[in-house]
Amino acid sequence: MTGSKAKRKFLERTGRRIVWSAEYKEKGKPKEGIRVVWLHPPDSWTLDTCGDYRELGEYYLTEKGKNKTRLDMKFLMTYDSKDEVEGRKKWEKELSEEWDVFRRYLEDDYKASLRAGKE
After folding, report:
1. Are 56 and 62 in contact (CB under 8 A)?
2. By CB atoms within 10 Å of each CB, which of 10, 15, 17, 55 scores lowest?
3. Total domain count, the chain
4. Do the Cβ atoms of 2 and 14 come closer than 8 Å?
5. Do 21 and 47 sit in the same domain of this protein?
6. Domain residue limits at 31
7. Type and span of the H or E element at 26
8. CA–CA separation, 65 vs 88, rounded Å?
């Protein structure tokens, strides 16, 4: 969806958890990490990463009226070195651009599910 060149290998998929490895290059050096998403239906999920960096993310959906939903995200990130830390504005810009792509896919998927339900 976002043009990432990372190779993903799904290790587990259940109704409660999804686990995968991610392999990619950063500044020419190979990196690998594990991602775990804990699902909390119907309105939240938690991201936990390890290996290449450490990031915890909480995602919450809130109904905001007919056909409107708000997504709130909260992250805690840790680094091995201060040299790895991106500026907040740069990180927020990159994340916003990425979620704009995800939003379009989610909206299209939702519209398709409504059409399928009418058939």
Report:
1. no
2. 15
3. 2
4. no
5. yes
6. 1-85
7. strand 17-26
8. 31
Q: Where are the alpha helices (DSSP H) in the chain?
A: 88-118
Give per-residue burial for 102-114: e unless 16+ CB within 10 Å, then b: eeeeeeeeeeeee
What is the Rg, in whole angstroms, of the alpha carbon atoms belonging to the chain? Answer: 16
Total residues belonging to the chain: 119
In tens digits, what is the pLDDT along the chain, a chain of 119 residues? Answer: 677 788 999 999 999 999 999 998 888 889 899 999 999 999 999 999 987 778 899 999 999 988 788 889 898 888 878 887 888 898 889 888 988 898 888 888 888 888 887 76
Q: Residue 65 is inside which H or E element, if any?
A: none
Within 13 Å and on the Cβ side, how many CA atoms surround 61? 13
For residue 84 the two structure tokens come to 């790895």
Question: Cis bond leading into 30, ω under 30°?
Answer: no
Q: What is the β-pairing status of strands 69-78 and 44-50? A: unpaired
